[in-house]
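Example (one chain per record):
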Amino acid sequence: MKRLGDLILPNSLQWSDRWEWSPVAQETARTLGGTVVTWSQTLSGGQPITLEAEDGVTWLSRETVDTLRAMAAQAGAVFQLEWDGETHTVLFRHHDPPAVSFKPIWPHHDLFTGTVRLMTV
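Predicted structure:
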């Protein structure tokens, strides 16, 4: 089951960047003598979670879209994302706008495609 807070999400919703994140931050620099110096640190939180309802795969109802928009409008709100047996604590990625974006499949229609941008905390 897929759920964000109390909102049940369609099972066909896709987590598009699930395997594109590394939990390690690393910086490198060179000394004047040419030696490489490396700093590494394990990250806690900050994994981007991009959920996509793609045309022909997943359509979102107006009620779901309205609920997601209302959730995203709560500045700093934290939610539980349940995804196929895993639980993640997330918030909306307002620093990577738009945090939510939706488009009706036809003008003035009540079914939508769209993207929800979250991150773990």
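Caption: The longest helix spans residues 62-72.
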